[in-house]
């Protein structure tokens, strides 16, 4: 790959994750031009000495890589191939890196459609949240042609501390959805244990210590219970709507493979109902509030 300073990256989606990820690319010397529907998000990137373009199509002919960090795969498809789509104006040697958490089979379909335009795409979703996006230590899982993964590696290394090739196109998105199902199952179990322990008179902080010193330890017991859930401030920075989407993606993948998984179906239904009750603006750690009320009503 050419020198980072001569590599132009069009970055679409400067939200909770996209803004710090785009800043990591800037810090790595890449020439990043970013866009977002939100003027505030664009302003935040300008404050970090980044370049923005309200109409990203303007930079299409000089773009070497496109990175999308939008809420879901449908929005990614619209941004690339919709009415105002960006893809038609790109050079055929531009590589598109889809970093949102999306549905794997939709990603395969998107790549087929982009191929008609002579373009290639890899899927490279991330795990780690805003803090790890800020310090460039995201876990990145990437699916697609090995040569394209190698081409993208310098950019991915600027944003993540690990880059794990998962196989064919869409496999990064599948791995991400399955990871979030496992993460959500651990979070749900931790919240239920805190609620039951509390009723029995065990201090939630003490029970958290017990879990973290014992075999019940998981990511949620380590980094979510004490900072966000026990004090009920619910400020982890990862939206419940995004978690519910990821679990539904995992459940729907199992269905598409012809064999729904009962535990996964149960989790998808639980998070869907929780989202309806707690509201679209909720943080995903508010699953605790939902479980608390549901327990009281039982
Ligand atoms: P977010 O809602 O904070 O950011 C999305 C951004 O996209 C917003 O700034 C929005 O204005 C912008 N946007 C929406 N449609 C657009 C369009 N058509 N053109 C340009 N900009 C548009 O979401 P996020 O938390 O940054 O998550 C992004 C993706 O990363 C999601 O797929 C999510 O599941 C995944 N993810 C999030 C986290 C997390 O902790 N927040 C962690 C890992 C993965």
Automatic annotation (TrEMBL):
Active site: 176
Keywords annotated in UniProt: NAD, Oxidoreductase
Domain 3-hydroxyisobutyrate dehydrogenase-like NAD-binding as annotated: residue spans: 170-290
Example of a GO MF term: NADP binding
Location of the 6-phosphogluconate dehydrogenase NADP-binding domain: 9-167
Highest taxon of source: Bacteria
Listed PROSITE patterns: 3_HYDROXYISOBUT_DH
Cited Gene3D superfamilies: N-(1-d-carboxylethyl)-l-norvaline Dehydrogenase, domain 2 (1.10.1040.10), NAD(P)-binding Rossmann-like Domain (3.40.50.720)
A Pfam family the protein falls into: NAD_binding_2
GO BP annotations listed: organic acid catabolic process
PANTHER family associated with the record: 3-HYDROXYISOBUTYRATE DEHYDROGENASE, MITOCHONDRIAL, 3-HYDROXYISOBUTYRATE DEHYDROGENASE-RELATED
Official protein name in the record: 3-hydroxyisobutyrate dehydrogenase
